[in-house]
């Protein structure tokens, strides 16, 4: 079996960008995964779903011009600023894959193990691949977080937002949506619009909303609050324009900043679809969740009313409770190798070339955020990752071959 220099696991924006740049440097590689699966699934749930990021901040990176999100949208008369629909982004990703990275192998990697001089990958069809280096670009797959309290309920009664395949399936049902971030707010709006009866349970005292940024802004406004791929303001601008800078900062500062940057808030375009549409209960902690005659009985504690407790019975709970990136949850990595990956707050600790403590094993995308900062939770970080890995790491791998 011919060993390749690089195997990429995952064919979302990060994996596709890297493959495009490796090809641009004639570095032999294989890329596995269902192209744009995360985004296609979102698109298939139905309803009006939009990106929070700007069009220009959601590019899949190619080494040649002509493949940005705006390059796709412009000639088709689609939005080239914001908001861009999720369906539109999924279609752009499929178009990018078919035109720039047509060699993607549409198959999952079932197991990754270490071998002399590299790695072995077992594919879902039972075949094998050997590689000198492996790049894990599996995004948020496998990291959906449901608090223990809710996770003990059987699956049809509680579902994470990422596992909802159709909002219309909840029509006519009472749903408690837990959370206050974009996923929870959007799920509640989509449930309402699909004919369900959602109630939003929010731990915080209020919901925070992004403000809309005008396309036409004075020079003064643009200088005070510059617009960049990660958002608006000096912090977003600095992070976007110096994507590698955070890696050299002390761990304690960087990890705190990464956790706290961009706290839960809804997109401006979602606000009118949420406010005054369905009940929103703020300052609420869910303290118990029990199955009761095929429904869910929740005990809610209201922290704004001296911890007063009350009961709410619903048909389902939708958990918009985010993601918990934890190397231990990457079950396709063989146990011993996984245990030997050095962690930074449960994420892999990565060097400046996105390499983990296992030589030749790299992580890009959201899993790299603790080492590189919040930019890498978003598509906008794909360009830097692809440039760094193809420029610094892959050439070494191919020379060693
Ligand atoms: C609801 C929601 C909305 C978001 N909106 C935005 C937004 O507006 N803008 C933005 O920039 N970011 C947004 N994000 C963040 C976004 O998810 C990430 O920025 C982006 O998807 C990361 O790209 P990726 O390539 O790392 O992962 P993904 O896009 O998740 O791709 C992962 C790939 O890995 C594959 N894969 C998984 N396991 C295996 C395996 N074992 N073998 C082979 N392949 C595998 C999958 O099939 C998929 O192809 C959002 C996230 C959520 C949850």
TrEMBL record:
| InterPro entries recorded | Auxin_biosynth/cation_transpt, FAD/NAD-bd_sf
Coiled coil ranges? none
Instruction: Name the keywords, alphabetized.
Output: Oxidoreductase
KW Oxidoreductase (keyword) present: yes
List the molecular function annotations (GO) for this entry: flavin adenine dinucleotide binding; monooxygenase activity
**What PANTHER family would the database entry show?**
FLAVIN-BINDING MONOOXYGENASE-LIKE PROTEIN (AFU_ORTHOLOGUE AFUA_4G09220), FLAVIN-CONTAINING MONOOXYGENASE
What is the designated name of this protein?
A: Oxidoreductase/NAD(FAD)-dependent dehydrogenases
**Organism in which the protein naturally occurs:** Bradyrhizobium oligotrophicum S58
What is the taxonomic lineage of the source species? Bacteria, Pseudomonadati, Pseudomonadota, Alphaproteobacteria, Hyphomicrobiales
